[in-house]
Design a protein that fits this description.
131 residues, alpha+beta, five-stranded antiparallel sheet, two-stranded parallel sheet, 7 strands, globular
Length: 131
């Protein structure tokens, strides 16, 4: 799945969804292994979901596990990019940026605030997440 120009919100996000796609294309060419348990701008990191808490009718807080004394490694205001397999297109990924609720100094876990949209492709995938 290649994002169209209309997928960009035009808000000056850094990185933009179009930049993310370009990076993903480069990473797939290099076939580098994923980093583990820490943020890395060059590789995607897999985290274990440990809790889902409903915040509002259509918004949840998702807590992911880190090692006991490990920090996520983000800066204040930074977003986390989630990559998931596209539900309808084989060998294709979806990408979305989400707000990190955890302070940069927190250790052991981090939390994301995610709004789920009725017709959103990524929302459909996230609704199937389980602990």
């Amino acid at each position: 799945w290649k994002p169209s120009d209309s997928d960009c919100c035009g808000s000056g996000c850094n990185p933009c969804i179009l930049d993310i796609y370009a990076q993903e294309v480069e990473l797939s060419k290099q076939k580098q292994p994923c980093a583990t348990s820490t943020l890395n701008q060059e590789y995607y990191t897999e985290f274990q979901l440990e809790q889902i808490a409903q915040h509002t009718e259509n918004t949840n807080i998702y807590r992911f596990k880190l090692k006991d004394n490990e920090r996520l490694g983000h800066k204040p205001g930074q977003h986390l990019i989630i990559r998931q397999m596209h539900p309808n297109a084989q060998n294709t990924s979806l990408y979305r940026q989400y707000s990190i609720l955890s302070l940069p100094t927190e250790t052991g876990s981090f939390q994301l605030l995610i709004k789920l949209y009725p017709d959103g492709l990524m929302s459909r995938v996230i609704r199937n997440w389980s602990v």
